[in-house]
Amino acid sequence: MRNKNVAAALVLIVLGVAYGYLTAGLPKRSLPDTPDPSFFPWIITACLLLLSVALLVQGLRARRSARDATDSAGGVGTPTVFLTLFVIYLAALPFAGFMVASMPFFAALMWLYGERRWGWIGAVSIALPVILVLVFRNGLHIPLPTGALAGLIG
Q1: What is the tens place of the pLDDT at every residue in 5-38?
Q2: Among the three residues 74, 90, 125, which one is the final residue of a domain in this structure?
Q3: Using CA atoms, how far apart are residues 86 and 105, in angstroms rounded to an integer?
Q4: Which domain holds residue 145?
Q5: Domain boundary among 25, 48, 74
Q6: Domain check: are 68 and 131 in the same one?
Q7: pTM of the model
Q8: I want to staple 102 with a disulfide (CB 3.0 to 4.6 A). Which of 75, 97, 126, 129 is the partner?
């Protein structure tokens, strides 16, 4: 697994640098209190590079373990469940909105990837969508979808 992580990290770092270079020349907007089109590619580039470097460090520090052998066995359970959950989440977004749809989605992902502490699952699956809504609404001035359900309630 170590060699795969290192190889994937190096490829992702190259892609991140190339993406950053290609989007560096996007035009600037002069509207007040709004992010311009060149702002989001820099966020994507920074996140991609940060996560790629973290993967590279993890791959370089990792030791081969018995779990690596079981990972290469090739089970399709977890990716299939993840993709199914993601499709359900995307279908629920227009009706339920970001906040309501994201909470069970994040909780299910945490459970799927091994978290078993119910308090932690509940706290993170509630806090993460709230934080994201606050960042997008207050920091970036971009409202996230509220969904048709909000129109029925309010």
Answers
A1: 788 888 889 998 998 888 887 777 666 666 666 6
A2: 74
A3: 8
A4: 75-154
A5: 74
A6: no
A7: 0.54
A8: 129
